[in-house]
Amino acid sequence: MRLEVRYYDVDSSEPTVLLHDDDCVEIGVQENDRVSVSGPRSAIVLVSRSDTLVEKGVVMVPASVMAKCGIAEGDTVSVTYSQKPDSVRSIRRKMDREKLEKEEIEAIVEDILENRLSKIEISAWLTALQINGMDIEEIAHFTKAMANTGTIIKFDREPVFDFHSLGGIPGNKITPIVVSIVAAAGIMIPKLSSRAISSACGTSDFVETFCDVLIDADRLKRVSEEIGGVFAWGGGMNLAPVDDMVINIEHPLGINPRAQMLASIMSKKVAVGATHLLVDIPTGSGTKVPTLEVARNYARDLMDLGEKLDMHVECAITYADQPVGNAVGPVLEARECISILEGSKHPASVVEKACECAGIILDMAGIPEGAVRAREILESGAAYEKFMQIVVAQGGRPDLKSSDLVPGKYSFDLVSMKSGYIHAIHNKDIVAIAKAAGAPNDKGAGLIIHLKKGQRVEAGEKLLTIYAESEAKLKRARETAMKYHPMDVEGMLIKRVSSSPRGI
Amino acid sequence: MRLEVRYYDVDSSEPTVLLHDDDCVEIGVQENDRVSVSGPRSAIVLVSRSDTLVEKGVVMVPASVMAKCGIAEGDTVSVTYSQKPDSVRSIRRKMDREKLEKEEIEAIVEDILENRLSKIEISAWLTALQINGMDIEEIAHFTKAMANTGTIIKFDREPVFDFHSLGGIPGNKITPIVVSIVAAAGIMIPKLSSRAISSACGTSDFVETFCDVLIDADRLKRVSEEIGGVFAWGGGMNLAPVDDMVINIEHPLGINPRAQMLASIMSKKVAVGATHLLVDIPTGSGTKVPTLEVARNYARDLMDLGEKLDMHVECAITYADQPVGNAVGPVLEARECISILEGSKHPASVVEKACECAGIILDMAGIPEGAVRAREILESGAAYEKFMQIVVAQGGRPDLKSSDLVPGKYSFDLVSMKSGYIHAIHNKDIVAIAKAAGAPNDKGAGLIIHLKKGQRVEAGEKLLTIYAESEAKLKRARETAMKYHPMDVEGMLIKRVSSSPRGI
User: Fold this and answer.
1) Which residues of A touch B441 (CB under 8 A)?
2) ipTM summary value
């Protein structure tokens, strides 16, 4: 894309002053050490050194630090060596495979939150975690420390149920259905969701096509206590904010240490005061959890951690070899989700997954035959009624219909070149196409998958319809679809394998 | 210290542009990802994102990037996603304890040199190295790759001898003596030294009090080939420059991964074309190498690595429980060093260490009874003559005398409060006092240790004399000395220990 340029008065997230080499020797600091700059007020900042860009006797100070210290150009200030935070020693202990104490973990989390650790140090911390890990006791301390960096919500009654999906699968629009069924059963479930990070559409991305997702902690509490549930955006509530800071360092390294991932999920559940939690673990090729064995390890970790945190945790390992349902993208997923609440039995995969997950939650709450009861609540219209109460409480229209949701006006059908069976639908390619079409920012962008795995397709029949809000993005999505071949069509015989190269 | 403030037009070592959150979603980048900014020319830069500090449709660009791309404020530029370097994948492989291929190691070194890896990524790399290490084959590839990032010097003849000390011990002024003896024996030894990083005085810090240390590669070659030796500063020659970039990331973490340390030393020896190398490993409490076991491991690693690099490496494990000789600080060390070359037998520890090290080098060159021969060369004045040739070749005065070197005019004697024996001299405290006095920047700053370990001292007798170039720094050094108690004085009986709490 093309953007207009403006001057950048660079003032990075890591305030740094520039000092001459000789002055650095004098002060006793090296590159990336810290100094305290003192004027009327003082600030601790990182050091960058040079023998050409700055004169001896001068300290070059960014505007933010000048403001913080109450100093201006031409002033004389005191610049002295400042020790690195003690938590750097704990980071080194983790490099040495040591088990960290509660207080050390709290100090690391606190120092990240307060910007007292540099990117270099946080990167070393995450790398050490990636390699050497933490045991469940350390992760429990880590989880609580992360939760305590932000808002902690306290409800006036218990139990507080929550539901979380590890994600990684496109089209997973079950959350509003699960919340509506559970709340309709009289169980409180204040569900906070996220927006897409690398996916085509997070729960908040499609929910905000029909109601507000940005609500504050007070409203979350009031609506949940009165109606039994919400489906709001967690990002607006300052829950475990240190987690977001860490994600920015994990992302470029392409790592997500197990300890960090578990603490990240669970700290937000601790922050909303959850007493009971169901975790959906979508398992299949092209997702975060490729095999059943990996899924079981996650489940074991989450349940063990729940025990340490005094939270009842159960896990649902769910099928994720292909997208859930047919729709991918904000408006399209919202339409599919609401149509099921309105009574549609289609797509069965969405109905089934939502009812199974809601059913486990009902079981956890002591309601017999939870899955059967969940389906009854959905089919009776009770879930729809509860859904509409929540929508209205979140500022949505009381006359909302699934048919109100209209995708982008530019569309393209991808048709099969041959007859056969749908042998595979590649999650990552589906996501790439929807993103190329503009999802999740363009609400009307996305795609409909017409045929799912195992279904028969005739040459010339539609496989996908791609929707976009502009012709340019439709073109981009079409090109992406042509490049990736998101769906494999094969005859019943996929490949003939000889038992021996010479034959028999 | 107090410095004048000037505005800092911050332009960090990591060029970064600021983009609006929505534009980031559009481009498909997250914080710390990379984009390519294209005007008449293009540049790859890191991304910082915000939804408050920058408007949609705008990219905030630092001046250096504007210049690189040939763009100005108000221009419209293309900003597109740019993949992270492939070497990030190799860093992840090292996190997973994999052995890296030659090409992967070369790519990492090249990407660090070219600023293609961010601080976050380099920190992760060093942390992975610290925890998972490298085998000798990987370290050999690493060493060669580092050497190839800078100048490679080729001499017109072989063998080329070199000498290196792991350092960490104050007062270690033997290098010019070793070089002079070895060169006087007809063996070429183009010795490059460093300045102090955390110590009170590196070899170059004291050599530059009597001749130039900054010479270029051509002059190094010419002087070495003609006279047989130099004692110049390695920092001026662009040898393995990537090493310095890495040190800036290691330092704040307080780590020095074995693989990095070995490659750092050896890459500079490869760059000067050394065929034979003696490494001095000072071993004792308060140094980098606290025990004989650790010293032997270093020696084994260095010799194994030498074999892979086709370099004949030997090691000398030397005594380092107290400073070498009596003087610490640039002028004082220079004076002590030159007085020995002039014929002084004192301090014996310096004479002995220099002759032992030179002797091993003579042995390596096939000269029988190297240590005996080294002492003869020193005592005959042949070493002094060679020393003066080198000094003059490096721009020093032909009539140089040790007595020319005069320490700072402010001095203070630290006296013993009691009679007894010198039980310990603490290396780290000695360094701290000399640095507080102004070393190594103030050439006349430092200290003389009057009594060494095991010597008898009477109450009121001088232990140390501290020298400084200003009263303020002398005061600071005196306070440091009072605080640290750098020398322990005890009776012959240090502590009486009962064999049982109840007695017999």
Assistant:
1) 22, 25-26
2) 0.84
Judge: A5–B77 Cβ closer than 8 Å, yes or no.
Answer: yes
Average pLDDT over residues A112-118: 91
What is the model's pLDDT at position B434? Answer: 96
DSSP state, A350?
Answer: H
User: What length does chain A have?
Assistant: 504
**A254 CB-near residues (< 8 Å, 6+ apart):** B84, B88, B89, B92
Average model confidence (pLDDT) across chain B: 92
CA distance A400 to A241: 34
Q: Record the tokens describing residue B6, joined without a space.
A: 């000037």
Residues of B in contact with A19 (CB under 8 A): 3
Give per-residue pLDDT as tens, A120-165: 999 999 999 999 999 999 999 999 999 999 999 999 999 999 999 9
> Under an 8 A CB cutoff, do B127 and A84 touch?
no
Cross-chain residue pair A18–B8, CB shorter than 8 Å: yes
Task: Quote the radius of gyration of chain B (alpha carbons, Å).
Answer: 27
Report the 10 Å Cβ neighbour count for A470: 16
The CATH code that applies to domain A16-82 is 2.40.40.20
- Cα angle value A356/A358/A363 (rounded, 5°): 90
Q: Give the model confidence (pLDDT) of B460-473 as tens digits.
A: 999 999 999 999 99
Q: Is A40 near chain B, with CB under 8 Å? A: no
B161-234+264-393, what's its fold? Pyrimidine Nucleoside Phosphorylase; Chain A, domain 2 (3.40.1030)
Q: Rounded to the nearest 5°, which phi and psi values hold at B118?
A: -80, 165
Q: At what angle do helices A102-113 and A242-253 cross, to 10 degrees?
A: 90
Q: Which of A24-33, A82-91, B376-385 has the lowest mean pLDDT?
A: A24-33
The per-residue pLDDT for range B14-71, each reduced to its tens digit, is 888 888 888 888 888 888 899 999 888 998 989 888 887 788 888 888 888 888 889 8
Partner B, chain A 210-249, Cβ-Cβ below 8 Å: 248-249
Strands (E), B285-392: 312-319, 327-328
Tell me which chain B residue has its CA closest to the CA of residue A28: B198
Burial class (CB in 10 A: 0-12, 13-18, 19+), A19: buried
Please say whether the beta carbons of A356 and A157 come within 8 A. Answer: no
CATH class of A87-133: mainly alpha
Respond yes or no on whether the N-terminal peptide bond of residue B407 is cis (omega within 30° of 0). Answer: no
What's the pLDDT score for residue B3? Answer: 58
Rounded Cα distance, A70 and B152, in Å: 50
Which of residues 120 through 179 in chain B touch A, CB cutoff 8 A? 120-124, 126-128, 130-132
In the block, residue with structure tokens 């409909």:
A448
Give every strand in the sheet of A487-490, ordered side by side.
A456-457, A420-425, A487-490
Chain A, nearest residue to B61 by Cα: A8
Using the Cβ of A12 and the Cβ atoms of chain B, whether some distance falls under 8 Å is answered with yes
Range A314-330 average pLDDT? 95
Asked if the bond preceding A241 is cis, omega within 30° of 0, the reply is no
The CATH homologous superfamily for domain B410-490 is Pyrimidine nucleoside phosphorylase-like, C-terminal domain (3.90.1170.30)
What does the alpha-carbon distance between residue B18 and residue A235 come to, in Å, rounded to a whole number?
21
Residue A115, pLDDT score: 86
Q: Write out residues 71-110 of A within 8 Å (CB-CB) of B.
A: 71-80, 84, 88-89, 91-92, 95, 97
What would the CATH number be for the domain defined by A161-237+256-402?
3.40.1030.10
Nearest Cβ partner for A17 among B8, B71, B89: B8
The residue type of A94 is K
CA distances to A236, B447, B482 from B420, in Å: 70, 22, 19
* pTM of the shown model: 0.87
DSSP state at residue B289: B
Domain ranges of chain B: 16-82, 87-133, 161-234+264-393, 410-490
